[in-house]
Design the sequence.
């Protein structure tokens, strides 16, 4: 992916740039709003990471609004030290596609960038999903592994659907909370892990090859490759 | 004029005088005109009588009649003068025909007299009798005492009004000043940091009392908020120091001992987990502060309590299953109230999470949604050890953790957050015993009114509840 990072803090920049480069992405960096706006408007990026508070006259949300008005559809992830629900709503309303509060885990950032990129490429909501020998038809709501049908509760279905739509990518616990349950808070205990292990019971328990895997310090992924 | 009471009184006095004058002026005018007319008529009939005498007895008869009248009269009361065609006086009590009076029949008001009473006037009637001129007049000073009495009356009324206004204004001012003085003393005590003071109020419903009561309500709210802030800073100091100290020790040890690579990575992972714990507590504190400040009312929509509660129960169901706890959910059916779905879900999540921590293996947790008085009530009940009566108020305090809960994970903010959410929705958490177990009730009124709840904090029952929620000590 070709990624633009608009961020003024040097430590955060160093940390993000290094991490993303190691993950195999190309990064451009702008340290202020003016450069960020110029690069964002002129270069074709797959994803833009936009810090909300920038030095100078132009702040992150203003750049997002300008880019959107100029017809740029590049997915934008807003980074911010403001984490309240209202701040988040304001960020998304200005035209951002996702919102991540500082401080964040690098795994969370990477997973969200992947998800944004994937979403931007356009997925047909009705196309059957396939990972290895696991099949899901969103229309008939049927799930099979090999030739065996698997019965899922509605929420389990939604959880698996989200994981399969991001097959091969890491999905964090927060992403699952936000997208499957629409909960924007920390539920304190490891409830997500329990939901995952229940789902794992249903789709992986009786098969040799596990598809739903835990990624240490990050989250989960559904993948057929090793 | 510095005092508002005095300027108000002065205003009323001026208004009173204006009213008095506007009442007296037309009256005085009407009276004046009527008297004047009556006197003119009187003079006319007098002249008529003299004319009749002239017709009967000629000028000599008239002359003797006039002389007789003049000799009987108090000088000046009536003016009589008979002159010949050349204006030479023949009879009467005027020395000469007044120069400013025309020798034409009619009524005239004439300035007479000289010296001190130069403004004295007289009403004159002039008649012609053949070639003679007759002047009948009357001095207006006869009516002067009456007029004077009128003016004295008016002046006395104005005086009474002035004195009453000034005295009233002064007394009102003194009363107001003394009350304002006590308010000012209280307020300056508060400014100097003693938030316990309240403005004096009594049972009367006058404006100052109403204002004082409103200000007291505001002070209650400010005291709660200040308590909250103090609590948060105490809590930060207390609860963030511990994980930060651990983190520091871990990193210092790492730098000092330089263990094997494998061990180093494990320590770094543990350090990240420490930091995450700090962030978690921080987020919870910020969220609490935000809810306490009442800023989250913007997220209020009409929501179905049963739906929110069902989703929360469903979310925690697998966790309950894992502990072999039965999580039951029951609702009266859809119940709509105004509320913030995200916060309500979080509060409920905290309550269920709490119940999960304390319910024993094989125990039961019940989540019930009931309709109550147009609103709804959510009950989360477990059959764990419950909470001792004297600990009930404390558990809602920030960071309080019962002795039995040492070692279980959690920020210690779960119940405080649920309490703050309840407050935002215009109610409070209610903790009751189930013997064994604990039941937490969260009422959701049909029309959430957090300000009303804040005002109600002046009643003793609500006061203990809010103190319980925020007390630092």
Sequence:
């Amino acid at each position: 992916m070709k990624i633009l990072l608009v961020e003024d803090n040097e430590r955060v920049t160093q940390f993000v740039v290094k991490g993303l480069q190691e993950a195999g992405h190309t990064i451009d960096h702008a340290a202020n709003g003016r450069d960020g706006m110029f690069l964002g408007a002129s270069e074709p990026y797959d994803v833009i990471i936009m810090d909300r508070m920038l030095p100078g006259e132009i702040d992150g949300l203003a750049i997002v609004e300008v880019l959107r008005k100029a017809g740029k559809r590049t997915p934008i992830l807003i980074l911010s030290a403001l984490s309240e629900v209202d701040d988040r709503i304001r960020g998304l309303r200005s035209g951002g596609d996702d919102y991540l509060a500082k401080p964040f885990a690098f795994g969370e950032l990477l997973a969200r960038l992947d998800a944004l990129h994937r979403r931007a490429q356009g997925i047909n909501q009705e196309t059957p999903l396939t990972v290895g020998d696991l099949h899901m038809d969103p229309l008939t709501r049927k799930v099979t592994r090999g030739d065996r049908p698997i019965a899922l509760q509605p929420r389990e279905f939604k959880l698996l659907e989200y994981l399969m739509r991001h097959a091969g990518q890491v999905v964090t616990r927060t992403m699952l909370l936000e997208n499957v349950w629409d909960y924007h808070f920390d539920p304190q205990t490891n409830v997500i892990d329990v939901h995952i292990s229940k789902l794992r019971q249903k789709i992986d328990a009786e098969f040799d090859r596990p598809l739903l895997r835990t990624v240490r310090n990050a989250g989960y992924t559904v993948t057929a490759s090793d | 004029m510095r005092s508002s009471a005095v300027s108000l009184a002065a205003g009323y006095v001026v208004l009173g005088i204006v009213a008095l004058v506007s009442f007296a002026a037309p009256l005085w005018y009407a009276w004046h005109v009527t008297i004047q007319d009556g006197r003119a008529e009187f003079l006319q009939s007098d002249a008529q009588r003299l004319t009749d005498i002239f017709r009967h007895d000629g000028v000599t008869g008239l002359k003797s009649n006039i002389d007789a009248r003049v000799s009987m009269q108090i000088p000046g009361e009536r003016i009589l003068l008979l002159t010949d065609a050349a204006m030479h006086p023949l009879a009467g009590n005027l020395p000469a025909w007044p120069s400013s009076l025309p020798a034409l029949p009619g009524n005239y008001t004439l300035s007479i007299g000289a010296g001190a009473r130069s403004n004295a006037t007289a009403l004159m009637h002039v008649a012609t009798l053949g070639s003679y001129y007759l002047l009948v007049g009357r001095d207006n000073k006869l009516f002067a005492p009456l007029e004077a009495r009128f003016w004295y009356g008016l002046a006395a009324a104005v005086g009474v009004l002035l004195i009453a206004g000034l005295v009233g204004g002064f007394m009102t001012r003194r009363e107001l000043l003394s009350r304002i003085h006590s308010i000012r003393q209280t307020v300056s005590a508060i400014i100097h940091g003693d938030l316990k003071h309240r403005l004096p109020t009594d049972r009367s419903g006058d404006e100052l009392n109403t204002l004082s009561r409103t200000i007291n309500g505001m002070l209650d709210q400010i005291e709660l908020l200040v308590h909250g802030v103090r609590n948060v800073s105490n809590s930060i100091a207390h609860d963030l120091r511990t994980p930060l100290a651990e983190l520091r020790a871990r990193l210092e040890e790492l730098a000092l001992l330089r263990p094997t690579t494998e061990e180093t990575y494990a320590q770094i992972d543990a350090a990240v987990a420490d930091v995450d714990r700090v962030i978690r507590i921080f987020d919870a504190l910020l969220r609490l502060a935000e809810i306490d400040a009442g800023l989250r009312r913007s997220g209020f929509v009409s929501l179905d309590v049963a739906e929110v509660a069902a989703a929360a129960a469903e979310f925690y169901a697998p966790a309950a299953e894992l502990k072999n706890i039965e999580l039951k959910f029951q609702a009266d059916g859809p119940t709509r109230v105004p509320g913030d779905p995200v916060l309500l879900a979080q509060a409920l999540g905290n309550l269920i999470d709490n119940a999960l921590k304390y319910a024993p293996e094989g125990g039961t947790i019940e989540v019930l949604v009931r309709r109550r008085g147009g609103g709804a009530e959510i009950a989360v009940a477990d059959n764990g050890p419950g909470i001792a009566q004297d600990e009930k108020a404390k558990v809602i305090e920030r960071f309080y953790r019962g002795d039995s809960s040492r070692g279980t994970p959690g920020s210690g903010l779960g119940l405080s957050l649920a309490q703050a959410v309840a407050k935002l929705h215009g109610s409070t958490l209610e903790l009751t015993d189930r013997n064994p177990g604990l039941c937490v009730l969260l009422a959701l009124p049909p029309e959430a009114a957090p300000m009303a709840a804040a005002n109600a904090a002046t009643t003793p029952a609500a006061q203990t509840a809010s103190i319980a929620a925020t007390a630092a000590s």
Q: What stands out?
A: The longest strand of chain B covers residues 121-129. Residues 297-470 of chain B form a domain with the Heat Shock Protein 90 fold (CATH 3.30.565.10). Chain B touches chain A at residues 269, 272, 275-276, 279-280, 283-284, 286-287, 290, 295-296, 298-299, 311, 314-316, 318-319, 321-322, 342, 345-346, 349-350, 353, 356, 409-411, 414 (CB under 8 Å). DSSP finds ten helices and twelve strands in chain B.
